[in-house]
Write a structure and sequence with these properties.
Layout lengths: L2 H15 L5 H24 L9 H14 L1 H11 L4 H6 L7 H20 L6 H18 L5 H24 L3 H28 L23 H20 L7 H21 L2 H17 L3 H13 L3 H8 L15 H15 L13 H9 L13 H28 L2 H4 L1 H18 L8 H22 L44 H8 L1
Helix pairs in contact: 3-4, 4-9, 6-8, 7-8, 7-17, 8-20, 9-10, 9-20, 10-11, 10-12, 10-19, 10-20, 12-13, 12-19, 17-19
Amino acid sequence: MSAVGRISSAWRQWQDGLDGMSLLGVAGLLAGAVAIGVLTVLIGGMASEKPVLLAVLPLMLVTAFLFLYSREAFLLVVLLVRAGANPVFEETRLAAIGGLGGLLNALIIVLAGIIIARDPKRVPRIAWGVWLPFIAVQALGLGYSPDPVQAVRLYLGQLSVVALFLVSFYLVRDEADLNKMLKLVTWSSVPVAVVTLIYIGLGKTAGSVDGFEAAASRYGGPFPHANILAFYLVLSVGVIFYRWKSGLAGRGVLATATVVLYLLLLVGLLFATKTRSAWISVLFIFVVYGVFRERRYLVYLVIGGMLAMLVPEVRERVVGLAEGNQVVQYAKLNSFAWRKLLWNDALSWMATWRYAFGYGAESFLYHSQTFFSMAGGRSWGAHSAVVQVFFEYGALGVAAYAWIFLSTARMLRPLLRVRFLLALIALALLLANFLVSLSDNMLSYLIYNWYFWLTMGVICALSCRIAGAADPRQRRPWGIRPSRYRPHGTRDPVSEFPATLPRGSEFPTTLPMRGMERAR
C-alpha cells in the first residue's frame, strides 16, 4: 500500500472513530479546549501541594481522545488498568470535585448512555429490573439526605456500577465474547498483584483499617483498605479458577502450571490482607466446587486449612474471634463484637416511624457520632451494607437491595442446564458477595463493585442469549415461563444446547447459538 493509501486509511479510521463528527461536535471540542485551559490554571496552582496533579492534565487529554476515537477501546483500557492504577487516582482526589476518579466515573456513565441510546433493545427488561428499584430508592433518599453533596457523589459512583452492568449486554454475544471479558478481568489483576507485592516489600500497609486494629498488620496493595483488595482477590480467584477448570486458560502443562502458581500467589496475597470474611468467601467457592464437581477438593481444603493454621498471623486472626466479645470498660473488642455494638446502637437509636424510608442517603455516617457509644469523636461507616441500607432507606431499601441479588440469580438460572460450571462459580460468587455485605461496607468499595458487577453482567448476558431473553421477539413478562406446548416444527432456544457436555469440557466445539441464528 502506498503512503497516500495509508494516510487515507488512517484518516477513515479516525473519522469512523469520531462517529462522523458534526459542527456541534467541533463546537464541543472547542469548548473542551477552553475547559482544559481553565483546568491547567487551577491544577497548576494546586500542584505545589500535590505534585501528582501534574499528571492529571495529560491523563485527561489521553482519556478524552481515546473516548472520542473508540468507545470500546476506552472501556477496555480503563478496565484493564483502573484497579492497579488506583494509587494515582487516590492521590489526585480533591474534596470539591473528586479528582480523576470522579471524571472517569462520569465518562463511564456517559459512555453507557451513548451505547444504550443507540440500541436500547439489546438490554433485556429483566436486566433493567435488576438495579432499577434500588437506584430509584437511592434517588429518593437524596431528597432528604443530611449530607447531599457527599450523597450525590456516591450516587454517581453507584450509577457507574450500574452502567458497567448494562453495557455488558453489548459486549457479549456468545461464548467467545464472554471469554474475552473474563480474560480482561484476569489480566486486570496482574498490576494489582505487582503493586501489592511492591508495597509488601516496602512495608507499606493499608491506608485505613477498621477500628482498634493495628495498621501494620494488614496490606491493601493499591487500595486504601485491605478489605477492598481482599474482595477483589476473591473475585479474581473465582474467575481464574473457572477459566482453568473450563479449559479456557489452556490445557498444556505450562499453561496449567502458570495458572496454578498464579492462583497460589493470589491466595497468598489474600492471606496478607487478613480479611476473615474474604477467606471464608474463597473457602465457600472451593467447597461448592468440591461438593458438585470434584470431591477431592474437599480433602485439599482440609489439608490447606491445617497448614494455614501453622502461620502465626492466620492463627491469630482466627483465634481472635473468641476474644473480646464482652462490652466492658477498657475492654478491647474484636472486630465482630465491635460491629455488633455499632449495629445495636444504630438500630436502637432509630425512630420507629423511620423504619419505612430511613434517614436519607449517607445518614449513617452523618449521625454515627451521635448514636455510637464508641464513636470517639469521629464518624463511622455501618460495616454492613444491609444495616446501612435499612438505616438510610428503610425497609423499602432493604427489599430493593435484596432484589438485586435475587434477580441476578434468576438471570443466571438458565446456565445451570447448559453451562453448569459457569453457573456454579457465578452463583457462588454472588452468594458470597451477599453474605459478606452483611458485615462489611460493600457499597463503598467502588472499584471492587465495578469488576464484580461487570463480571456478573457478562455472565448474565450470555445466559440471556442462551435463554432467548436478549431477543426482543422472545421477551417474556416477568415471572411468566414459556409454555411447555410448542407447535410442531418450532424449537425452544434453551433446548438447542446439550444438557450434558463431554467430561472436562465446559464449552462444546461448535456453538449451537450461532447455528440457531442462521436457522432464523
